[in-house]
Amino acid sequence: MKKGKIIYLNGVSSAGKTTLSKTLQERLTEPYYYMSMDTFMYMTPEKFINNDCDENEGIWLQSIINMYHTIKMYSDMGYNTIVDDVFVDDYLPLKMLEILHDYPALFVQVTCPLEELQRREKERGNRDIG
Fold first, then answer.
1. What is the mean pLDDT of residues 64-86?
2. Rounded distance, CA 15 to CA 18, Å?
3. pTM score, whole prediction
4. What is the rounded CA–CA span in Å between residue 43 and residue 49?
5. Structurally, how many domains does the chain consist of?
6. Taking a C-beta distance cutoff of 8 angstroms, is the pair 8, 99 a contact?
């Protein structure tokens, strides 16, 4: 079976990854599933997400690694996927590349001017600015 294509969008919060993902889904001629880091974070029990304790880091980290394996599984089944992610450290991009290294992927760094990021975050109101 032919592997599904992966469009991997990485960028800071409020850079426009979700909007870009939805626009791509509308305009691309083939169907693309949408997968985001946020979805996998919401599957993690909340008490383990924003906790600075080292013993919980493994649970948070595993949620993100689970996303990489899910992307791989979708591709193996022939499904195209758009991924919305934020690399928060140096380890995760390396882990993602380790898992997806033989897969048809386009990696896109989504950027936005700082002033616009601050405006968007303030407008959204559901996150800390900065």
1. 97
2. 9
3. 0.85
4. 10
5. 1
6. no
